[in-house]
Amino acid sequence: MLSYIIRRIIMAIPLLIGISILSFGIIHLAPGDPTALMMDPNIKPEDMEAYKEKYGLNDPPHIQYLKWVGNMIQGDFGQSLIRQGTDVSFLITERLPNTLFLMLVSTFLALIISIPFGILSARKPYTLTDYSVTFTSFLGLATPNFWFGLVLIMFLSVQLGWFPTGGIATLNEPFSLWDRIHHLILPALVLATADMAALTRYTRTSMLEVLKQDYIRTARAKGFKERKVVYKHGLRNGLIPVITIFGLLLPSFFAGTVIVEKIFNWPGIGLLFIDAAFQRDYPVIMAITVIAAVLTVIGNLIADILYAVFDPRIEY
Amino acid sequence: MSQPENQLQPNVQPNVPVSPEPMAPLPQKPDTLTRIAVDKFMKNKLAVAGLILLVFIIFAAIFAPVLTPYEPSSQQLLKKLTPPNGEHWLGVDTLGRDMYTRMLYGARVSLLVGFASVAASIFIGTIVGAVAGYYGGKIDAFLMRVVDVFLAFPSLFLLITLVTIFDPGIDKLIMAFALFGWTATARLVRGEFLSLRSREFVLAAKTMGVKSSKIIFSHILPNAMGPIIVTATLNVGIVILAESALSYLGLGIQPPTPSWGNMLQDAQSLTIMYEAPWYPIFPGLMILVTVLAFNFVGDGLRDAFDPKMKS
After folding, report:
1. Contact A158 B270 (CB under 8 A)
2. Which of A106, A164, A173, A258 has CB 3.0 to 4.6 Å from A191, enough for a Cys bridge?
3. In this structure, what are the phi and psi dihedrals at residue B98, rounded to the nearest 5 degrees?
């Protein structure tokens, strides 16, 4: 087991190197060089030269790349072009907890809603219940999340006044748990929608497969209650493939945070990313892209390892 | 749907000996794989409904100028935010433009971006996947690592990054979607090629000295077309969703060119939310229905091409 984990981690290294090369390549597509963005156009040529020398802009590309990667590993993502003098790593660490919190809650929401519906669908396949669940998940997959968010804000927040229109907490008020939850419900729901739909369908397929197995028939023949057969004998195996799917859904989940945070004005890294995109703040854009990619690799790594832990049939 | 029944089972008549006489002419065309797939598809009600919707939307997009008396960019400022009525079926937007007209013209943009970028990404993905799957070994290992790298990036982040570097526009958007959409196809095609390349017909072609390129494109590829068509169909839906999100954010199709996404741009103002709740409904529904239709057709095709699924 340990050797499998180590091998799996080693396999992730070329991936991380590839990610860094691709990111570095993309950022070098940007027109002009950083000096054009940051400096006074009337600067004297020798000052410009000194500046370039100081920040290593005269180095050949591979040296620049190595320096960039070296700094990144130490958590140094450079400085924001717009908010001069602010470290990108500071901007990100300030916002990351908000995003992770939102993601965690909506993951939880997606799981507690989609798994029971997936099971329900699989227990009564090809019935009205199954068709309604399947159709609803089709709808969930096809709904543009920004539009769903807009419509929810319009009806539930603006027209009915049940929820705040955005933000993470009421301004200028002392911390209260209810206030936080109140602000969290809509964004978490919108972020969870697409994944809910996908997870429901995967749970259904996987449970359908499991409930056909011989050991389920044996359990039923022994006279166990249906509930026990499904939830104790079936579910344990039925959920194994769902773990992998969860790893695969991570990138779309990150993408979802960008849109949800923008709509609900949620102060996380998604909103930071959009703001940076509009201001052409390349160091911030690049740092967040790389972090999202690295988190995706780590997420898939964890999913793979969990898969091996839960499914003893996997050889490693 | 009164389609002819499949002729998968031969008519077995146990007591009648097989007659040596010349056979009577076949009552109908013999079953081909395509025919079986079409039959199965036509029996899938959701898929057929999706197909009809798509044909309808495509026609609406093509014949947009005939279907509306207005121009997509002409403004009648006095009428701004008029709710839907007999004259303006879906109302008038904040700049006094007819929403129904903009939806029709928006369909052109959304469908163009969807079809063009999927065509390009399928092209790249098929070539990469075919080469990787056919040759195997080191080429395969290298290409698949490249695919892994692309897949690790949440594509929306890469798209937005690219859009900030090259200013947004329809052509750039299509290029960006093609550049990051090919990876899933490449994996799929590679898988198909891996299993097909060791079949007898490929071996036979190799023995006869057929060139590799010909084996790849004329012998193996036609056998892998089913799954490729399915992914392509589903991908158009995915691209339309992503394009609408980018356009909504202001990073995709730029006004005044209408797209379903950028029609929603000013919908988050409080004025609209209080006074014109009808405003954001239709463009959003349009995106939803279109994507749903592509998904239904894609799923229908998947079942139709799958020999394990009974019709």
Report:
1. yes
2. A106
3. -70, 120
